[in-house]
Amino acid sequence: MLQATNQNEVINIEAEQSVLGSILMEGNLVKEVFLKPFEFYMEKHQIIFETMIDLNTKKDPVDIVSIISNMDDISRERIGGVSYLTELAISVPSLVTFKFHQQLVRRAFMIRKSLKLCNLFEKNPSVDLLPKLIKNLNELIVEENSTDTTNQEVISEIYNEIVNPRSGLSGIDTGFKDFNTMTDGLQNGDLIILAARPSVGKTALALNFAMNACKNNVKVIYFSLEMPKKQLIYRMVSSLARVDLMLLRQGGDLLTKDEHERAEQALGIIDKWDMIINDNDNKSSQSIYDISLNIRSQLWKEPNKDCLVIIDYLQLIKTDLTINRHDLRIGEITRELKLLAKELNIPIVLLSQLNRNVENRIDKRPFMSDLKDSGNIEQDADVILLLHRDDYYNRNSDSKNKIEVNVAKHRNGPVGAIELSFLKDTGTFLDLAKK
User: Fold this and answer.
1) pTM of the complete model
2) What is the dihedral of CA 95, 346, 310, 268, to 10 degrees?
3) Which of 190, 195, 211, 324 would staple 382 via disulfide (CB 3.0–4.6 Å)?
4) Contacts with 341 (C-beta within 8 Å, 6 or more apart), sequence order
């Protein structure tokens, strides 16, 4: 009898548990499943999964209470009761790998089925039966890859894009002509690192990306791990109304009638935007799991709407303390965010600090090696943007109110520096020609 040398490829209990545990942690994930109950090896996993599917079909919540309530006494006993469901739920470290673990479950099922077909043939080998065996194995291969886009489909899509080019950008409009020319906008599936020394303007630029996206009816999910929501909204009002932020915060007679009116109009505009600001006001810190769960829950509400995610900033994300080295913990975060951007097909802009090496050089322009905990960040990022302001270091600079945005890495396009006008009093970025 034929046997697999790697039993984990045949019976992947851990992957099955991860899939079920992920759904228990976030019931809406059941909408993203492509597995069938019979593809699970363990009988109790088949029962649990089938119950989850039934609950979703009936539009009932998919959680531990609903699952137990939907089973008879025999089924409850066969799955191990509430204790086993709870064990599944708490054993999942991340939802980012949900799709990949489904693929592992399916792969194990396909190998089990292939072994069964081959063993049946081995018991009764025949030249006449060989074509049937080959046909059945080929059907398994086709079935395994049925959830993936075929080469022909991708080729056809590329052909149509070449023959019938789009009129606008392929990515999300940043609002900046030179930057859009270089990147074609913020691209779906990309992890974009935006890095600078403190107070150079990385949060201000991220907010300008967010505001310009909102103006084009894009949903923006903004994670502010350092600054409260109220401060961010003050900044946006200041930028939109072109009113000095310090005067705006003090308000009253310090503002002219015109400035009051512009500020009120700006508040009305912001109120209509589809922007969710998560300022973490009820937690000490957020993990990559918290961020991933929040993004998924927002996308499920409007799955077909363009979305931009901004996270401010990387070094404040709660890390996995079971990993010994800090740089590897940071690397785990950037890896999972890259996987998330690819899976959900959205751009994620991740702000990051630069280390102090910049300050020790005559030329203060940062390099990718200046990224704090840089190794994994450089590897995982599709685009790396490094900000530099000469007037930050030199008060007598000839480049006042200008900021250099260096596209230091661009996986799918050119690299190089562009200049923007930066009005510090209002946190407004503009193309130089618009100033």
Assistant:
1) 0.71
2) -120
3) 190
4) 188, 189, 190, 191, 309, 347, 348
